[in-house]
Write a structure and sequence with these properties.
alpha/beta; five-stranded antiparallel sheet; 41% helix
């Protein structure tokens, strides 16, 4: 009765993010009740392996009492402190220092936001300020990559290159431009170096067309997440970073998903051998226990803004920037990562990728890709032609539901792609169960009359 009441209240009042309002009203909500480790339990008592860590964010896993205690202690001592008026609190100050120490190169200056979308939004404002301070106010054009996701704020959604975040809103984005994704599985080019060379050439051509003195920055995810977990060829990110340096364009690494052990190291940029001019993080920063995001700035970006502002305030900030409770949680989560979770995540990630690779023999599987605890399985109806699942089968909803029935939560993309981002705390048994349950979902999907009718 309680669950039924909640479903009805949800239907009447709660607007869900990135949802079909009418579709959600029809389907109703699945209410989650509790979680521990990599397992969540719904209101009916069903236990499921969370193969997506909430929304790519519960990297440390659920139920760490030390994190709960860190939040409670901070709430008792100082539940809020503004960063305005030159005020502050110990936890965010220490967190900024800890992050700067661990970040690549001279990313020494940290601005805290509430999450990933507003971290990206903040970079746009900081970059515009930077170029004004440098005496180049005409640099107001931004470039990102097709299939990329950089948040759903009004400004960040402009950088996002997924149609669903533009359709119906009628917001003009004349300042935002795209180049093609590396998307190796569906790229007409077949070698890594050819893909890298083509991307660098396309970026340079786009800059030339816009005017090198007009382009402010280039944004990219080390691995494209919401576009389908698209992993670039080795060396692609560094080549794009080098091209930006050559053209004197700021390079922004969006590590909202890839940060904090998701691909293995604390930051994917370090693995790529680059130091971005700005870097965004969120999600794993607090392991999703509380909202928080961050913008990392290199010394030269910070100094240009500081010199440009002089004694004036830089007019950007949020009420909850550098929230002390979120910062206290992040500090504790950082201890957990370095106390063994990063190592476990590397081992679990290798096991996950090896396990998913065994699915390549399945008639529906066209591609398996990933790095660490970030992976995807792409389904097709014709392996030779790489034909995606037909749109009319409503693959995203149907596949998610089928995985749920098998006790597995994964991200299901509309084009027939399963996305995986399990907590770093996963055991061997849990990783193996993710793979086994995925195979069961694939087998059941193969039995769909609509799927069998189009299989080749």
């Amino acid at each position: 009765m309680l669950t039924n009441s909640l479903v009805e209240l949800d239907r009447q009042h709660l607007v869900h993010p990135v949802s079909s309002f009418r579709g959600h009203e029809e389907r109703g909500v699945r209410v989650l009740r509790s979680a521990k480790g990599a397992t969540v339990t719904d209101a009916e008592g069903r236990e499921l392996i969370d193969g997506f860590a909430g929304l790519w964010c519960v990297n440390a896993g659920y139920g760490h009492e030390s994190v709960v205690e860190a939040a409670a202690q901070q709430m008792r001592e100082l539940p809020y402190a503004t960063g305005y008026f030159d005020l502050g609190a110990e936890a965010p100050i220490r967190l900024a220092a800890e992050l700067a120490e661990r970040s690549p190169g001279d990313l020494n200056h940290i601005y805290f936001s509430l999450g990933g979308s507003d971290a990206v939004d903040s970079t746009i404002r900081f970059i515009r300020y930077y170029w004004h301070a440098k005496g180049q106010p005409n640099r107001d054009q931004f470039i990102s990559v097709e299939q990329g996701y950089h948040g759903s704020t009004t400004m960040g959604a402009g950088l996002t290159a997924l149609p669903g975040f533009h359709d119906g809103f009628g917001v003009p984005y004349q300042w935002q431009h795209k180049i093609s994704s590396h998307y190796a599985y569906r790229n007409p080019l077949t070698t890594d170096q050819d893909i890298i060379d083509a991307s660098v050439a396309e970026l340079k051509a786009k800059v030339a067309a816009l005017g090198e003195d007009k382009v402010a920055a280039f944004y990219v995810e080390p691995i494209q997440g919401s576009g389908g977990v698209l992993v670039p060829p080795k060396g692609w990110v560094k080549a794009m970073r080098d091209a930006c340096a050559e053209m004197d364009i700021l390079f922004v690494a969006d590590e909202v998903i890839t940060g904090f052990g998701r691909t293995g190291p604390l930051f994917a940029s370090a693995e790529e051998g680059i130091v971005p001019d700005l870097m965004t993080c969120a999600k794993g920063l607090t392991s999703g226990y509380l909202p928080m995001g961050a913008v990392f700035m290199r010394d030269h970006v910070y100094e240009a803004i500081a010199e440009g502002a002089g004694t004036k305030a830089v007019g950007h900030g949020f009420t909850y920037s550098a929230h002390p409770v979120s910062a206290a949680v992040a500090l504790e989560v950082l201890k957990l990562y370095e106390g063994g979770l990063l190592d476990n995540g590397r081992k679990a990630g290798a096991r996950l990728m090896a396990g998913l690779e065994t699915l390549r023999d399945h008639p529906l599987v066209g591609d398996v890709r990933g790095r660490g605890m970030l992976a995807a399985v792409e389904m097709v109806t014709d392996k030779d032609k790489k034909t995606p699942l037909p749109a009319e089968v409503q693959a995203a909803t149907r596949l998610f539901d089928r995985a749920w029935e098998q006790g597995l939560i994964v991200r299901s993309f509309a084009q027939g792609i399963f996305g995986y981002a399990p907590p770093l705390c996963c055991t061997d048994t849990e990783i193996d169960a993710i793979v086994e349950r995925t195979r069961k979902v694939l087998d059941l999907t193969l039995e769909d009359p609509e799927i069998r009718a189009v299989m080749r």
